[in-house]
Write a structure and sequence with these properties.
Blueprint (H helix, E strand, L loop, with lengths): L1 E5 L2 E2 L2 E2 L1 H17 L2 E7 L14 E6 L8 H15 L3 E5 L2 H14 L2 E6 L5 E2 L2 E7 L4 E7 L4 E5 L14 E6 L26 E5 L10 H10 L2 E4 L1 H5 L20 E5 L5 H4 L7 E6 L6 H4 L2 E4 L2 H15 L1
Parallel strand pairs: 1-4, 1-6, 4-5, 5-12, 6-11, 7-11, 13-14, 13-15, 15-16, 16-17
Antiparallel strand pairs: 2-3, 8-9, 9-10
Helix pairs in contact: 2-3, 4-8
The structure holds flavin-adenine dinucleotide.
Length: 316
């Protein structure tokens, strides 16, 4: 029996959150004396995973799984669950992995708990700590089914290198069909996506209009960051909805989140709680965001941001 970790990839590149899920799987397996098996889909080069403690990596090869479909992926993973006799599946907290968790849970009639932030409090009974009420509280939740599925909140466990020499296996799976049909996929624009970004530069209504986003983009480019925004900014069409961060938008779990001209409403903060270091630039010293910030700059964004870009470029 092994702990199974689903490792998400895009264009053959593994997601940062999946490395974290693998590290979590390693630590959990060690605590209960089991092995860790990572599962990738249509990814033949898995060398990058060797540093994160897996005992075995299975690559599912299937022409039915070229584009993500939570149902099809779930059916394929269930095959591996059976062959490896796994009792625990670990997923990351990406939107796709959460969809997958729900379908895995449905197909196998198993408990699925998302937003897990720590190794289990106890393995028998299997109790995990998770965030709830948009990160405002924690709950201890018991998974009572034989197969247990959990997804890990990004940045909650961290990435701990543990070089290993995993056994590699390729499994061909054919003929997966479901009643779900993907009609169109709209890819996020920009070079760095919010979900995977180490640094996110985010702008709010304080920037006055879309014409002023050049400096946000320039700062992001200088730092190799993704760009994001508050809800009103995307509601007004200044920026695409894919950049909207918060309770009703995307969660951000970057190492650095720079908020420029954003007041720090509770709904915005709910989406960025998992970011490690928060820097706030706002001309109102009473802006609520300063209470959540690690570093705050009180001042006019139109003066501070250009001079920050200049200084960063000079350092480069
Ligand atoms: C059910 C619900 C869900 C919501 N979900 C979300 C969500 O997911 N995400 C989200 O973001 N919001 C969400 N909101 C909206 C949220 O309540 C706030 O209204 C919104 O976050 C405010 O956006 P803002 O900070 O960009 O704008 P504002 O509140 O207008 O703040 C602009 C800030 O810019 C500062 N500023 C102005 N000029 C400058 C300058 N020259 N230099 C520096 N700073 C300057 C101001 O001091 C101010 O603090 C939700 C609301 C509801 C009711």
């Amino acid at each position: 029996m092994s702990v199974l970790v689903y490792i998400e990839s895009e264009n053959s590149k593994f997601k940062k959150s999946s490395y974290e899920a693998l590290c979590y799987g390693r630590a959990l397996a060690d605590s209960i004396g089991k092995k860790v098996c990572g599962v990738v889909i249509n990814c033949s080069n898995t060398e990058n995973l060797n540093s994160y403690g897996a005992d075995k990596i299975i690559n599912i090869n299937s022409s039915d799984l070229v584009d993500f479909s939570s149902k099809k992926y779930a059916h394929a993973l269930v095959e591996i669950v059976k062959s490896e006799n796994s009792k625990i599946i670990i997923l990351s907290s990406s939107p796709n992995s959460k969809y997958l968790g729900a379908h895995l849970s449905g197909i196998t009639d198993s408990s699925f708990v998302s937003n897990v932030v720590k190794l289990p409090e106890s393995s028998n009974p299997f109790i995990v700590k998770r965030t709830c009420f948009t990160n405002k509280a924690f709950s201890l939740t018991e998974l009572t089914s034989d197969l247990k599925i959990i997804s890990i909140t990004s940045n909650s466990f961290g990435i701990v290198e543990k070089p290993n020499n995993p056994e590699n296996e390729t499994v061909e799976i054919k003929g997966i069909s479901t009643n779900q049909k993907i009609l169109d996929i709209e890819k996020e624009s920009g070079t760095v996506t919010i979900a995977d970004a180490e640094i996110v530069v985010s702008g709010g209504r304080g920037l006055k209009g879309p014409e002023n986003w050049e400096m946000i983009e320039s700062l992001a480019e200088t730092l190799g960051a993704a760009t994001a925004c508050s809800k009103p900014v995307s509601d007004m069409g200044w920026r695409p909805h894919s950049e909207h961060v918060g309770q009703t938008g995307k969660p951000v779990a970057s190492n650095l989140y720079i908020a420029i001209g954003i007041s720090g409403a509770i709904q915005h903060l709910a989406g960025i709680n998992s970011s490690k270091v928060k820097v706030v630039i706002n001309n109102d010293p009473e802006a609520p965001f300063f209470k959540a910030a690690d570093y705050g700059v009180v001042g006019d964004a139109f003066e501070i941001v250009p001079s920050l870009i200049k200084k960063l470029k000079a350092r480069q």
